[in-house]
Design goal:
There is one protein chain. With 256 residues, the protein is of the alpha+beta class. The protein contains 3 helices and 17 strands. 19% of the residues lie in helices and 30% in strands. The radius of gyration is 32 Å and the shape is globular.
Length: 256
């Protein structure tokens, strides 16, 4: 009875030995390859967009400079309510930004003048407490312009005579902001400030003067005066390289 048992044990050991040899050969001829990360070369490099940080938030901004005021136009959109992209295409704008506020009847809120004449009258609102006017030079002032080729009433004023204004806003909320500013050398600049992670979001109005100071320091600007334009979902800006579209129709645009 012992012989069959020995035979079975011998067969088992032989099979185990052959399996070990085969495994060894497989290991030698097909070595294991570690799971290396796959590196994909980028086909397009993400451009650097300027940002500033304030009170724990990071804000991106897009801006353009008006080098020839005579080429700036103020285009109404109160009646047609066209998309910003269509307005830009129709009027041949290389650069554009939303202008001032409008009311629930899609009429300009406050003074509004372009080459075709008057479309809005002066408002007594404490929020739109300033005027942006453009003739040979651009002016931001608390006073209504006596004569001007283009003019809108908007606000609030953010800086006057090189000094930031202290704002007190009821129910101040975060939203994308469009701003016009005039430098000490007379240059007119338009800028939109927003949260890069949520493009219709942005700073509170009361934070805007301080954020503009950070941007001015970064861009080496000397701001003489600055004023807020319409913002939030009814704001938009277009440049040859970057654009932000509106969610609601813009009332009018500055086209350059």
């Amino acid at each position: 009875m012992k012989t069959p048992v020995k035979i079975l044990i011998g067969v088992f050991l032989c099979m185990a030995f052959m399996f070990a040899i085969r495994s060894y050969r497989n290991h030698q001829t097909s070595p294991l390859i570690p799971n290396l990360p796959i590196v994909v070369e980028p086909t397009d490099v993400e451009p650097h967009y300027p940002t500033v940080s304030f009170d724990g938030f990071s804000y991106s901004y897009i801006w353009f400079k008006v080098e020839n005021n005579s080429k700036l136009a103020l285009i109404p959109n109160f009646d047609k309510r066209m998309a910003m992209s269509e307005l830009v295409k129709q009027n041949g704008c290389s650069y554009a930004i939303n202008a001032g506020f409008y009311d629930t009847n899609y009429k300009p809120l406050g003074l509004w003048i372009n080459n075709e004449g008057l479309k809005g009258n002066v408002s007594s609102s404490t929020l739109i407490n300033g005027f942006l006017s453009i003739s040979n030079k651009a002016t931001i002032s608390v006073n209504k312009p006596s004569e001007s080729r283009l003019a809108i009433q908007t606000g609030p004023l953010l800086a006057t005579d090189k000094q930031n204004r202290r704002l007190s806003i009821t129910n101040d909320e975060r939203a994308r902001r469009s701003v016009a500013l005039v430098l000490t050398n007379g240059t007119l600049i338009f800028i939109t400030i927003y949260n890069g992670e949520s493009v219709y979001d942005g700073p509170k109005l009361t934070e805007l003067p301080s954020i503009l100071s950070l941007i001015a320091n970064q861009e080496k600007w000397n701001i003489q005066d600055a004023i807020n334009l319409d913002g939030g979902s009814a704001s938009a800006i277009v440049t040859p390289t970057r654009s932000l579209q509106e969610f609601q129709p813009v009332g009018s645009i500055f086209c350059y």
